[in-house]
Amino acid sequence: MLSVSRSIVLPDSELVVRFLRADGPGGQHVNRTESAVELRFDVLHSPSLPDDVRARLLARSDRRLTDEGVLVIQARRFRDQGRNREDARERLLEILRAALVVPKKRVATKPTRASQKRRLEGKQQRGKLKQARSRSWSHE
């Protein structure tokens, strides 16, 4: 059971945990033990997530999110399988809690007259520089 917030609780049945061999330090022992953890959570088909949270999660441009809407987290920071499992669950919680926050709506504002003037002056200066460049360079 993974408690995301007061209203959202993910049952363990929605989390798929797989163990794999980790790379990195550990000597000969690392070749025989599966201490790395891959945690999969199906965001698209999860009945525990509210629709707005699901939409925000799926809208993220996150490389850990597959085309099928499955969030894949790999934890191999530690040499201990139990610690890696906890690390993966914590990282999933961070992602889910970040999706709970409703982003503020952007309020459209007009550019100030001074900023418009600065922009146009900058464009004119750049144009003059390019114009001067083309006059000094000749075809031979």
UniProtKB/TrEMBL annotation:
One Pfam family recorded for the sequence: RF-1
SUPFAM superfamilies: Release factor (SSF75620)
Entry coiled-coil feature ranges: none
PROSITE patterns named in the record: RF_PROK_I
Claim: GTP-binding is one of the keywords in the record: no
Chain segments carrying region Disordered: 106-140
Swiss-Prot/TrEMBL keywords: Hydrolase
Protein name: Aminoacyl-tRNA hydrolase
Species whose genome carries this gene: Dyella acidiphila
